[in-house]
């Protein structure tokens, strides 16, 4: 009896390949109507995030409210951060229209008031490159540029946790346990070394890789080989 290939097995979404929901205890988002000054109550460690988190206290409707954001580099407990301000200081939550060009920012809103959707991983930041009318151009760590509305907010600074991946793995055994703790598939076996039931490139005499062109909307498992190339065949 045959079995599913690896891509289809993972795509099914069983416990073996799903992220632990219990790890996501904290919701990384700041409220829509923030005014005045907030205070960093505590710095926390979250198993689900690559950066330390900051628990921030603020006043909303004459009541104390709390929210969580990624901590910036150099943040300390008891520090005050400002909302709805034009002051460019690490930790302040500022509208993009008030942020100077080339200022490091993170936790950027996709739409005004959504609480921050982009740039949340440890050691990362984005920078404003240009402002044209209501549009603000921001360059991401991937060097890609994206435009946002000038009323979207962001946090000033660089996220803490820089250098997290700098230490070399050195030996294969360490990488094995790193991947195992995150339910990642490791080691990755070459496709041509598999059996025919495990991969479309499996089996065959020798290591002749079969050239197959998969459809762009093909299901997991069929999307292997050449994914909609511009052209195929030998160049003449």
Describe this structure in words.
The protein is mainly beta. The protein has a domain at 21-156: Roll (SH3 type barrels), CATH 2.30.30. Helices cover 7% and strands 25% of the residues. It has two helices and twelve strands; from the N terminus they run αββββββββββαββ. The protein has helices at residues 6-11, 172-181; strands spanning 36-44, 53-60, 63-70, 80-83, 93-95, 104-106, 126-132, 135-139, 145-149, 153-156, 213-214, 226-227. It has a six-stranded antiparallel β-sheet with strand order 5-10-6-7-8-9, with no helix packed on it. The chain has a four-stranded antiparallel β-sheet with strand order 3-2-1-4, with no helix packed on it. Strand 1 and strand 2 form a beta hairpin. The protein is elongated, with a radius of gyration of 23 Å. The mean pLDDT is 85.
Question: Summary?
Answer:
This protein is mainly β.
Question: Key features?
Answer:
236 residues, mainly beta, SH3 type barrels, six-stranded antiparallel β-sheet, 7% helix
* Average pLDDT over all residues: 85
C-alpha Rg (nearest Å): 23 Å
Which class of the domain at 21-156 in CATH terms? Mainly Beta
Query: What's the architecture of the domain at 21-156, going by CATH?
Result: Roll
Helix proportion: under 10%
Strand order, largest beta sheet: 5-10-6-7-8-9
Structural class: mainly beta
State the end-to-end CA separation: 44 Å
The helix-strand sequence is: HEEEEEEEEEEHEE
SSE diagram, text form:
Elements: H1 6-11, E1 36-44, E2 53-60, E3 63-70, E4 80-83, E5 93-95, E6 104-106, E7 126-132, E8 135-139, E9 145-149, E10 153-156, H2 172-181, E11 213-214, E12 226-227
Parallel strand pairs: 11-12
Antiparallel strand pairs: 1-2, 1-4, 2-3, 5-10, 6-7, 6-10, 7-8, 8-9
